[in-house]
Amino acid sequence: MRSETEMYDLILGVAQGDERIRAVYMNGSRTNPNVPRDIFQDFDVVYVVTEIASFIKDEKWVNVFGDLLMMQEPDKNNQSQGMDTDFDRSYGYLMRFKDGNRIDLHIQTKEAMLDEYGEDKLTISLLDKDNCLPTISPPTDADYHIKPPSESDFTSCTNNFWWCLQNVAKGIWRDELPYAKRMFEEVVRADLDKMVGWWIGTNHSFEMSAGKMGKYFKRYLTAKHWEMYRKTYSDSNYDNFWDSIFITCELFRIMSEGIANDFSFPYPSDDDKNMTEYLQHVSALPRDASGIY
Prior knowledge:
Layout: H1 4-16, E1 21-27, E2 43-49, H2 53-57, E3 68-72, H3 74-80, E4 90-97, E5 102-109, H4 110-116, E6 123-128, H5 151-173, H6 177-203, H7 217-220, H8 223-230, H9 238-263, H10 269-283
Parallel strand pairs: 2-5
Antiparallel strand pairs: 1-2, 1-6, 3-4, 4-5
Helix pairs in contact: 5-6, 5-9, 5-10, 6-9, 9-10
């Protein structure tokens, strides 16, 4: 696997040797001092170029970066799906190489760069041939920090969590595994993760990020709470699924009651009690039952 130094030398060497490329900047995890370094980190790079068309026309130009394992061109995919695209302003290549490295490379015109440069505060300049990159502050992940909830945020989250669990229960009883799993993982878990994030933020003064999709939850939760969170995942066995549902309810209750106490928000105790009892009832309901009660 090529080293970080070798990859930077390659990325900048290509830019220095191509007159069409006038500047290079980077964003993403490699610009964030709070992110631990590891072998899977991407190189999120932007080339500021004089024009886009010649790059797109020469489909093999990206081979200069190494032997490709696979490449995705999101803009091309979006265009094929009928989405609005403007190849004259920017274009992207997501490249995984056979040595394990990955480069997410975007090329954009100076005009496109000026519209967005620095909006992502995790941005650093790597090369500027014409002094065209505006001056920006040092990189910070402040925009990614967990934000405190408003009372309406909290109320909406707790209400949706307890309400949508009935759909999960219905899906299990009907033996509709795809529906039940998607309702749990895509809807209920979204509210659980939101509450876990707020709990973490409260306990760390809202001065940190839990990472994309909660990838740093383990870092910030207590060992006990992480073990509970881990058990919210189950397999396709319905008994195990029910176990994960009830521990999800317990963890959500702990987190949300803590948030309610810290922010002086009302906690929907009746919804919690009633829906927990309902879930327990449905979990024991025979498949040939003629009524819910």
